Amino acid sequence: MTEIERSARLLVVDDDDVTRMLACAALEEAGFQVAEAADGEAGLTRFGEFHPDLILLDVLMPGIDGFETCRRLRQQGVRVPVIMLTGLEDSASIELAYDSGATDFIPKPINWTLLRHRVRYALRAAEAVDGLLRSERNLSAAQEIARIGSWEWDLSTDRFHRSDNYCALFGEDAASFGKGLSALIERVHPGDRERVCKSLDSVCDGQRYALEYRILRADGQVCTAHEMAVPLSDANGRVVQVQGTLQDISDRVAAEQRIRQLAYFDDLTGLPNRVHFREALQSALLREQARGGHCAVVLINVDRFKRINETLGQDAADRVLQVLALRLGAGHAGTTEDGVAPDRLDAPRMARINADNFALFVEGASGRAAVEAEVQSLLSRAGSAVHMDGQTLNVSFSAGLAFYPKHGDTADTLLKSAEMALGALRRLGEHDAIQCYTEQMKVDAMSRLSMESALREAIDKDQFVLVYQPKVDADRGRIVGGEALVRWHHPTEGVIGPVAFIPLLEEMGLIGHLGQWVLNQACDDLSRWRAAGVPVVPIAVNLSAIQFGRQDLLDSIRDTLDAHEVGADMIELEVTESALMRDTHATAEVLHGLHGLGLSLAVDDFGTGYSSLAYLKRFAVDTLKIDRSFVQDCDGGNHDPAIVRAIIAMARSLGMGLVAEGVETEAQARVLQAHGCPVMQGYLFARPMSEVDFRTALRDGLPGADRFRRAAE
Known about the structure:
By secondary structure, the chain is of the alpha/beta class. The protein folds into four domains: 139 residues, Response regulator (Rossmann fold, 3-Layer(aba) Sandwich), CATH 3.40.50.2300; 108 residues, 2-Layer Sandwich (Beta-Lactamase); 173 residues, Reverse transcriptase/Diguanylate cyclase domain (Alpha-Beta Plaits); 176 residues, TIM Barrel (Alpha-Beta Barrel). Helix content is 46%, strand content 22%. The protein has 28 helices and 27 strands. β3, α4 and β4 form a beta-alpha-beta unit. α2 packs across α6, α3 packs parallel to α4 and α19 runs parallel beside α21. It starts with a helix and ends in a 13-residue tail after the last helix. InterPro entries: Biofilm_reg_signaling, CheY-like_superfamily, EAL_dom, EAL_sf, GGDEF_dom, Nucleotide_cyclase, PAC, PAS. GO terms for molecular function: DNA binding. This is EAL domain-containing protein. It comes from Denitromonas halophila.
């Protein structure tokens, strides 16, 4: 006896007291718990109190008979087995018993041994049915949660049986869905119907399949489904039925698309990102390798974009990038007709690979000239003015090119080569230009890398020194100032001038560190000279554009002067015109602060940049340094020093001091002196000299400085 049988509760309903008593005794002897009732009404009441697992129900009873009692139990949803006890053996009575919901019937007179076995069988059958129903409910619930429906297809009749969950995936029920294969096919997205039909044909031939396709719901939504189907064969191996499941995977597909979007596309512009571009390029290179072709990689930079970012702010700069991305991506974005990015990663496309850099590759490149012409056309179209927040921005692009297989045979090497070409343009300060990679760039890059490492070591090991070049007043024949210039004492290369390392320090972000060192060293030298009784003169110190733009500039200079007890009148700051004009509003504030400290400001290389009278008035510059390129015209020969005369006249009208740079000949000195610029700096008087030599020149005088001294002196 099973556990369910040992604990089973039985209800015997019979109006015959003897039959009821014998039945209860026989069943209790068999180990069952038994309750009894004398008629149908009492049986219904007792059922609600006792909750039996099985009912033995007499058919002929006063009041409501067994048929009606059974019918009412079933109407209440009672699913326990009901065994009819009846002396009626005609077929009509038997059919009526089953129609009323009876599970089984036992004819009278009752065989008590057989009764016990029939009860056990009914209990076991009920337990099996309950288990099956529970499994079906659990399966249905699981399928509903997982959005899975099941189906069966009888090939001989073309009849489909579809579960309720299956129909619900289409937003319908079984009645509205229709019958046969055609009902499914008409609900498959037109773009996927051919694939679905081919898969159904294959399963009829005995091949199982797994397939993703789009379905059309009754509410108009398009969902993505995953279907699996297996064929069932008869004894002869002939496929007679197909069973399958259909799962709505729209959420998973959407999540995968979002993950792919994040992994392969730029959020700001919607263009492919560097990872996507690299994979696409690598696929293109494999194709070109197979057919012996060529491929060009184009790296595109938005000229002076940092300036746009600093001036308009990041939000506006991002919108500018979006506009430029649309222009650059037109015809190169690799999208399908419905605007969706294709699944293939090797489709030709424009990409945004970092902040203001875009990239494009050209498969089957026919030659450098053709590629450059195509790129130039693209950049010209994309470079028209951008209107943003009431302002008109003129934008341009620079591009670096590299070609497969000449400049590299992998995506990474080609991208690196194109980056080197673009970097060469940046270092030359060129804009709106196209540069192709050369092998010399790789040599230069290795040299620069080596120099970067050496420069960091130079800073750590204090390998920089200051030299001073005197400023001479030719009228008085004496030193009236000096310029502090930095030199690098390389352990193996010797003395290296600033032209070789200053631009690299700016790229490395270390120019501010070196600039502060120069100011500190110059103040230290001034302090020592004064302590030694040497007559001191103002020393000019160069400020880079990066230093000039730092918010802590004033505090840093003040702290340095205080630390060495050097007066502000002993330091002159030199900046270039371009540094002043980067942000005119900020420049005005900085200059106001510098003048507040008592410092003077000189504009270096004047005449080579903006050379605006308006900015000189606005910024209250103290001194102009005439660039050496104009000084060369003052040689007393056929050259007309008109620009020099104009600069001198302008400086006089504004009450500014003047210094002529790069004076190398007596003729130049005499012309400058004659036109009213007596203060000069150049090889004619002295080359940059060590601190010791400059200190000696301050104490004893500079030989030859008095050769042009006026008689009045």
